[in-house]
């Protein structure tokens, strides 16, 4: 199953940011046990490259491991060298997108305006991260569907269990979930069972959605 098919099936990319490096493996295991199949560690997380390497060794074939907050082509090269299977950015940067495409790595760049979304798509993105969705809201994604329904959109920022179905009905292809899913206070306290159960709730909610 390729990147887009798998993303369409599972619908969730878990965004791990600022996690203590010594707790990253246990947290990832809890998320996997909860049903998460896409894990993104942001490049501004201390030890991000080491985490990517370890996660690839630990979860190879079970979880898609990616790098987030990939701001430029240099970050992209570092993440890919560490073993990232996909890249997520907060911005639309042509060099970064084309570097990933040339390396055969899936990339979901961040965009806000219709112009940025179309540019990201033309540069070779397989999907576009509509960010910040919490500010823009599901109605923004719904309005984009008129002219841009051919571009898969990943709603990121502000998506929760309570509004996931609204974003899906508005046209979101999948969701990038950070703090609403990956609770750092639970991880720091070693409450991995709680994290697992929380992830399972999101996975169940996502599977109940009918996303075209």
Short structural summary:
The chain has 212 residues and is an alpha/beta fold. The chain is built from eleven helices and nine strands.
Main traits of this protein?
212 residues; alpha/beta; TIM Barrel; 9-stranded parallel β-sheet
Give a structural overview.
The protein is an alpha/beta fold. The protein has one domain: TIM Barrel. Helix content is 49%, strand content 16%. The chain is built from eleven helices and nine strands. A nine-stranded parallel sheet has the order 5-4-3-2-1-9-8-7-6. Helix 3 links the parallel strand 2 and strand 3. The longest helix is centred in the last third of the chain and has 16 residues, at 192-207. It is globular. The two termini are 17 Å apart. The model has no long low-confidence stretch (mean pLDDT 96).
Percent range for helical residues?
A: 40-55%
Kindly report the oligomeric state of this protein. Answer: single chain
Q: Which regions are unreliable across 5 or more consecutive residues at pLDDT < 50?
A: none
CATH topology descriptor? TIM Barrel
Protein name: 2-dehydro-3-deoxyphosphogluconate aldolase
Subunit structure: Homotrimer.
Organism: Paenibacillus antarcticus
GO molecular function, one term: lyase activity
Q: How do the strands and helices of this protein lay out in sequence?
A:
Elements: H1 3-10, E1 12-16, H2 24-33, E2 38-42, H3 48-59, E3 64-68, H4 73-82, E4 86-88, H5 94-103, E5 106-108, E6 110-111, H6 114-123, E7 128-130, H7 133-136, H8 138-148, E8 153-156, H9 164-170, E9 174-177, H10 184-188, H11 192-207
Parallel strand pairs: 1-2, 1-9, 2-3, 3-4, 4-5, 6-7, 7-8, 8-9
